[in-house]
Design brief:
Blueprint (H helix, E strand, L loop, with lengths): L7 H11 L9 H15 L4 E2 L11 H12 L13 H15 L8 E4 L1 H13 L8 E6 L3 H10 L2 E6 L7 H10 L4 E7 L11 H14 L2 E5 L30 E6 L12 E5 L1 H4 L15 H13 L5 H15 L5 H21 L3 E2 L3 E2 L2 E2 L5 E5 L5 H10 L2 E2 L1 E2 L11 E4 L8 H14 L4
Parallel strand pairs: 1-13, 3-4, 3-5, 5-6, 6-7
Antiparallel strand pairs: 2-8, 7-8, 9-12, 10-11, 12-15, 14-15
Helix pairs in contact: 1-2, 3-11, 4-11, 5-6, 5-10, 7-8
This protein binds pyridoxal-5'-phosphate.
The site of pyridoxal-5'-phosphate has 13 residues, from helix 5.
């Protein structure tokens, strides 16, 4: 028993009482609950790095437009399933101005968070063709996406991209696609949890293979514009946020408003479907839907069944935020740069105390500073590290639950850590290092 920053016996009691078999394998929400309980008993604040909650207030333009919409009475009215025209038009403008791609407003659909967009995609794309019934994940990934596949009964495979960057990605992807049963590929870019950012060369490989094997690419842009090494914040001006949509016309983009606009609480995201996919006619869809056209099956089959549309007032909020961004009046990237700056300082603290960055390189370059980073401690598995962290007042999640092969690592999310807590973090890491000396 050591003089750990959080009393050893209190932490042990809570771990035992939580019913969690192993803290190292627990889900994000289980860890959150455990830490909440310890904080409540001890009155001591943890360095909370387990959950990707935005740590920045929502854009006022959004909340004001939403309040106005509510005062105008929209709460009483069902919105159209595929979204209000105002929002659809702004989404279409947004992808033109920030991705430099053309997608008609019809194909731009608000969803109940990007989370619902993912669920709707897994459900629909795996029914286009009876022979293509499996989604391939380019891991590591956001664990809830795989949970969605499991609860839907959708077959899925995945591989850790760490050793398949650049041209090596082609052969690896082709080894899966050539089997003929892959319907779709999902990845996030920037990547949650590793913060890897695919290059245009890699996106072209993915796009080319999507064309060759008729596979739908589901590109998750939850951290849109947040590779702060480049300035993607100027509407209609290069550089643009890199996207697979430049290289294939068989795509769905999932764009979250949770992080870019700090709008997680209102659960609103965007699904942007390429025109080729939207208008695809696939007789196999008729097994589940009244329509054989993909776009109609998605809207009047899947989205109708799931929630019959997205919160009416939140759509006004997102439309107002996008309009301000599209008109160049609000710089959404500037508003979230704080995440990258905090990551830089926090990574230094970890490195100074013997930790290593797990996903450390983006091809030849050091990994960017962003919303997440990954760390390990020599001689410890990720599971041991997480369990031990709890005694030091630090919480994170294991990379093992993200499809990563780097099971020695954990994912740290910077968003909820306040700058005032940096001295605490530094002290706790020093104690950790002192108690676990490296040879
Ligand atoms: C990669 C990724 N995709 C999707 C989501 C979900 O986004 P939303 O809050 O819009 O449902 C998250 C949230 O953390 C994420 O990290």
């Amino acid at each position: 028993m050591k003089d750990t920053p959080i009393p050893y016996d209190v932490v042990s009691k809570h771990i035992q009482g939580s019913g969690i078999a192993s803290v190292g394998k627990a889900s994000i929400r289980e860890i959150k609950r455990l830490v909440d309980n310890i904080e409540k008993e001890t009155g001591m604040k943890y360095i909370r790095m387990e959950m990707g909650v935005p740590g920045i207030p929502p854009a006022r333009i959004g909340t004001e437009a939403q309040c106005k919409a509510l005062q105008d009475g929209v709460a009483a009215i069902y919105p159209d399933i595929d979204g209000i025209p105002l929002l659809k038009a702004e989404i279409s403008r947004f992808v033109k101005l920030f991705l430099d791609i053309d997608v008609p407003a019809t194909n731009c659909i608000p969803t109940v968070g990007s989370m619902q967009g993912g669920f709707a995609c897994f459900m629909t794309v795996n029914r286009i063709n009876a022979k293509q019934d499996t989604t391939l994940f380019i891991d590591p990934c956001f664990p809830v996406h795989k949970q969605q596949c499991r609860v839907l009964g959708v077959k899925h495979l995945g591989f850790d991209v760490y050793n398949y960057r650049g041209e090596k990605l082609r052969e690896k992807l082709e080894s899966y696609l050539s089997t003929g049963n892959i319907s779709s590929i999902l990845y996030s870019n920037p990547n949650n949890p590793s913060w890897i950012c695919f290059t245009d060369e890699e996106l072209k490989i993915i796009g080319d293979l999507a064309n060759k094997y008729n596979v739908v690419i589901m590109e998750d842009l939850a951290y849109f514009g947040m590779d702060f090494r480049k300035d993607y914040s100027k509407p209609g001006q290069a550089p643009y946020q890199p996207t697979v949509a430049k290289y294939t016309d068989n795509f769905i983009l999932l764009i979250s408003s949770s992080k870019a606009f700090s709008y997680a609480g209102e659960r609103i995201g965007m699904m942007v479907i390429s025109d080729k996919l939207f208008t695809t006619v696939a007789p196999d869809l008729k097994r589940y839907y009244a329509f054989d056209q993909f776009g109609k099956a998605m809207i009047f089959g899947t989205m109708y069944s799931l929630s019959s549309g997205t919160s009416h007032s939140a759509q006004y909020a997102l439309a107002a935020m996008l309009k301000a961004v599209n008109d160049g009046q609000y710089n959404f990237v500037e508003a979230v740069k704080e995440y990258g700056e905090k990551a830089h300082i926090m990574k230094e603290m970890f490195l100074k105390n013997g930790f290593k960055i797990v996903y450390d390189k983006d091809l030849g370059d050091p990994i960017a500073d962003g919303f997440y980073f990954t760390v390990s401690y020599p001689g410890m598995s990720g599971e041991e590290l997480l369990q031990t962290f709890v005694y030091y007042g630090i919480s994170a999640i294991s990379l093992a639950i993200t499809g990563s092969e780097r099971t020695e690592g954990v994912r740290a999310c910077v968003s909820l850590v306040l700058r005032q807590q940096f001295p605490d973090l530094e002290y706790r890491l020093q104690k950790f290092h002192e108690h676990h000396p490296l040879s």
